[in-house]
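Risk register update: the risk of archive-format incompatibility is retired. Evidence:
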Amino acid sequence: MRRTAAVALLSGLVVFAGLVTAQTNAGKTLDIYYIDTEGGQSTLFVSPTGESLLVDTGNPGPRDLERIVAAIGAAGVKQIDHMWTTHYHVDHVGAMEELSKRIPIRHFYDHGPLAPNDRATPATFLAMYEALSKDRRTTVKPGDKVAMAGLDIITVSSNAVGIKTSLPGAGKPNPACAGVERKDESAYFDPDNGSSAGFAMTFGKFRTVDLGDLTWNGELDIMCPVNRIGKIDLFLVSHHGIDRSNSPALVHGLEPRVAIMSNGTRKGGAADTFKVLETSPGLEDLWQLHWSYNVGVEHNAPGVFIANIDDNATIAGVLTAPPPGPRGAGGPPARGAGAPAAPGAAATPPAVGTPPAVGTPGAGRQGGGGAAAHAPAYWLKVSAERDGSFTVTNPRNGFSKTYPPR
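Archived output:
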């Protein structure tokens, strides 16, 4: 009798402990850090159990490396469990080698061979990557999953092939395809964009996608005439907001509630992309890593939604400068005293969103002059709950907004 009672008591304690653990885990969030790589990409996902997925590593050099390391430190991550490379362009893989010397990387995922005739991939990268990822590399195909506790991560595009089987809840005709034509992409010197490995991620009722730099035609392959992905909550604007991507078929078909644009001051953030976002049904807010010089006051989101903004004198110079001449002549003036920080930012350590000022002036420019790299540089952080609600926070000014479940 005593043994039976003891076993029963022990079993009860085990069940109770399991319930407490389940309740504790249920209260944890999926945290996402959209790191400022001045028009590149690097995004850190940390699951409720602490497992990590890093998508891309920004540009080469200490600037982006230190920003990525700062985000990793802020998240309390001790190793990168999953290193996902969307494609091999320098603004997406630049800091990988040096990052691997700073923190262990357990496994690598990519789209496979470099796209033929691509001229935008560093000549030395592929050999380095082969050696670094040896025996720890997975080439993903549409439909493949990443095993990450509590998350459902499904590859939806890879090596210029889109997923053919609809994800759960998807598979309906996409009315946003009407009038959207395919583009002639044959002249692009950087076709590895179109090979981008992209995924859809589900955490409870929360859904997001990262398609890397997948181009217009690749978007149509997964969205037309049938929407293979379904509706999402959070959309990382593809290709830094460049209008070679972000077709209405994709953006309007996904019907995101919130979009985050990983743009630079002059890289990405095309006017046509802003227009697609502004007309997207159900879009509540656009958040940006940078105030875009390309669209001035006409399309940029309100300042509280932008992680990095130049000082007023620099912005005034951009808005009043004459149009640039050939090869960027007549661009905006150099950055002034530095971006205003949030109250008390001077006393804030790098681990909470203020990586040290590292890098070369003007990094991240495209098509002419631009401001120097921002220092400090701020990320955007998303914390998602299992019920589908999520909060976006801008550490520059402390502003955050919570989006309740649909």
